[in-house]
Write a structure and sequence with these properties.
Elements (H helix, E strand, L loop, with lengths): L1 E6 L5 E3 H4 L5 H15 L5 H13 L12 E5 L2 E5 L5 E5 L13 E3 L2 H14 L3 E7 L2 H11 L10 E5 L8 E6 L4 E6 L16 E8 L5 E8 L4 H20 L5 E6 L10 H4 L5 E2 L6 E2 L26 E5 L1 H4 L2 E7 L29 E6 L2
Parallel strand pairs: 1-7, 12-13, 15-17
Antiparallel strand pairs: 1-18, 2-6, 3-4, 4-5, 7-9, 8-9, 10-11, 11-12, 13-16, 14-16, 17-18
Helix pairs in contact: 2-3
Amino acid sequence: MKIATFNIQNLFHRHRDLVSKSRTKNATDWISELDCLLRKPNKSANDSERINNLSFLLGFEKTGDNSYAILKRRAGELCFKGRILENTTKASFLTDWQGWTKLGNRPIHEKAIFSKAYMIAETNPDILVLQEVEDRASLIEFNSEFLPLLKITPYQEVMVFETNDNRDLGMGILLKNGYHLNGFKNHLHDLDEEGYSLFDIDCQEYEISTPNGDSIWVLNNYFSADEGQRQKQAQKVSEIYKQKLRNGKDLVIVSGTLNDVSYSHCLAPLLRETDLIDVSKHKRFATDRDNGSSGNYFSLGAYRTGVNIKQKDYLMLSPKLFEMVANSGMNRMGTWPESKPKWRLYSSITSKEHAASEHPLLWSSINF
């Protein structure tokens, strides 16, 4: 069995907020602080003042209160509502279209789409776990139209499940070669101690049957960018994993974008308070080293000596599964290096817009 996890960062269209210029470190810190303050149930006068200051620093005061127009659906037809308080049907076979609307998504470069396919085709896993998928229709098209061009068999089962993210970032799983999805559970409605949603994206549980009749369980995750929330999510996933072990379910995989390095305190409940083992620790873990002198040193957060990128993505196995690992690895040939270190890329990638994703693909082959 070969399994892979990949934050594919959408297939054909990406939310405009996610492809805009990167925020400064200050802006990122302000957003995290504002998010924490807004989540507090009881706010002091100082909290309210700080919220106003942060809103100003982030430019929220530039947002207009009145929209020029609203595009909405009514009685099966599209309507255009302007500043005057009346609805006029505009989009139909009887009327001409009047007005405009700002699109929330931007198309992804064709080379980037093929880069995603290259990364998947090179690994060709039986089970492919994905984060950041726009919708099932896009994934089905990608599976049936792009993967066959690279001479790999398309997946027989293609599923995408919605999450709590308001940018329509779904999570999904693809299976073939006798592997089937037998059960699914999400954690969209789990609450933290303050009564707010625990997962701003989700933790999804998949029960998968193997060709020989065994069952494995995959926990597909996307953790928060906020440190405090990320630690709560790690604690919850740790509890889910431990409960499975107590129930005799010892073939468990925990994967996804955890948004932090392995030595982070936020991930301690999952990485240091469970017996899960990262596949990057396997003696046969393979990946290209950094180019030049960058490949000769080790830094914290690296997947391996000579692979010095900040770790955000994980593929972790329960001890019983880890004992069955034949080999494992990471593909980052579709990931554009912002600065040093550099690494080998697909020849078609000559700029950042051609990159498959900001995340590498992690995989493992397991002998049952």
